[in-house]
Amino acid sequence: MVDTITIIGGYDKQGNKEPVEEVVIKKGEIFGVVGPTGSGKSSLIGDIEQLAQEDTFSKRKILVNDKQPSYDDRTNPRKKMVAQLSQNMNFLADMSVGDFLSLHAKCRGASSKCVDAVVNLANTLTGEPIKKDHELTILSGGQSRALMVADVAIISDSPIVLIDEIENAGIRKHDALQVLSGHGKIVMVVTHDPVLALMADRRIVMKNGGMRKVLSTTAEEKTISKKLNKIDELMLNLRDKVRNGEVIEDIEMKDVRI
Amino acid sequence: MRMVIVAGTPGSGKTAVLIHALKRLIERGLNPSVVKIDCLYTDDDKKFAKIGVPTQVGLSMDMCPDHYAIYNLEDMISWADENESDFLVVETAGLCHRCAPYTMNCLGVCVIDATSGPNTPLKVGPFLSTADIAVITKGDMISQAEREIFRERVLEVNPQCKIIEANGLSGQGCVELGEEMLKSKEVALGKEKLRHSAPLAVCTLCVGETKVNKKYHRGILRRIDGFQSYKGE
Hints:
- The structure holds 2 protein chains of 2 kinds.
- Helices cover about 35% and strands about 20% of the residues of chain A.
- Chain A is an alpha/beta fold.
- Chain A folds into 2 domains: about 1-80 and about 160-258, 3-Layer(aba) Sandwich (Rossmann fold), CATH 3.40.50.300; about 90-155, Helicase, Ruva Protein, domain 3.
- In chain A, the strands form 2 sheets. In chain A, strands 5-6-7-3-8-9 form a 6-stranded mixed sheet, with helices on both faces. A 3-stranded antiparallel sheet of chain A has the order 2-1-4, with no helix packed on it.
- By secondary structure, chain B is α/β, with parallel strands linked by helices.
- Chain B is about 30% helix and about 20% strand.
- Chain B is built from 8 helices and 9 strands.
- Chain B has a 7-stranded parallel sheet with strand order 3-2-4-1-5-6-7, with helices on both faces. In chain B, strands 8-9 form a two-stranded antiparallel ribbon.
- In chain B, α1 (about 15-25) packs across α8 (about 175-180).
- The chains are: A alpha/beta, B alpha/beta.
- The interface of A and B includes residues 86 and 108 of A.
């Protein structure tokens, strides 16, 4: 069981010590990672994914329950504590969706019975349905993303979930986040999206490859987050309407009082 | 002399990974030499020279690069000796992967590219199955699920190997490779043997026959139905 993960700071791109020396993230917490492009958000996520032990470019160290994880804990997919949803969603594997998912279930020590569950869940997040006999390589960006969200939720059911820029995929991000943040999981979301960033309990601000500061989401920000969610839902509904060939005549702004 | 033989598909990132790992060796006070075996062209010697490691290039031209590497091993070791090196790293560009250049006592490192698809480990043969360490590169280009499947496939082919997931650009995982390299054994050239036999290839094609018709071919030959025979004097 993972109760806490601790990120011990290393060095930024210039080789200076990171201003944030230590971050402790507790079970059940949703954590954001924000910062301009190139500021090192993905490498921070990468360090956590590998449970880095001062052996990456940043020289960060990650502790799980205040202890250094063993080599096996770090590398064996059956013991892997981290499930990652990366930005890279291009499938290169030349096989069907069904074969791919059963192989992955085998790697993770999960039952191959969950394949149908993954496909069904993926289809709640994306537009055109994915079928088990589809070739992986023909899936669109959004379909691949939805499939990976479902895979992370069901097959790679790990106590730590890392999500890298989920907003880029054209899938229902709130539903995706809900699917992923199952009971008691630590969820880290890398994002440029204020809606997602303010949904988190705290956020790390990255700059120049280093962790600059850690902010707690204020009560005001939580209120703003709720308003932003409304705007977002409005946009999503409009998007669905446009996608389905409807003509937009009016929009309901009464829920969103800014 | 301690020896590491590194093999891998072209463009898999052997040189990039090695440069990061060699830096670790130098930090630990070792004095390595590198021999780069390639077929037609390489400028990797310049990259190794940049980190101050003595480097020799061997171009095999129209000879099989693995045969060439094996045949020249003795000379490489004495060259490293002349440099007063305690450590020889041979990077070879094996092509067909039917054989493996590793000897019994060297540390055999196979570098394999995760973007080449999950069936690749099943296709490459002894160069992966007889390696001590499989370094998987470019894992950052694919999803975690694909990476895990690739890893599983590598283990299916070589259950004993140690897997290191490395990134030639950032150097991630290379420290670990460096540490493994430090554990390599001394080689005794007089008794050193290959881990796997080289391909069956004594035929007229080897000495330059270009005609395709069956009647021009001599040597040890295998038909498509599996029948194997020796034809010739």
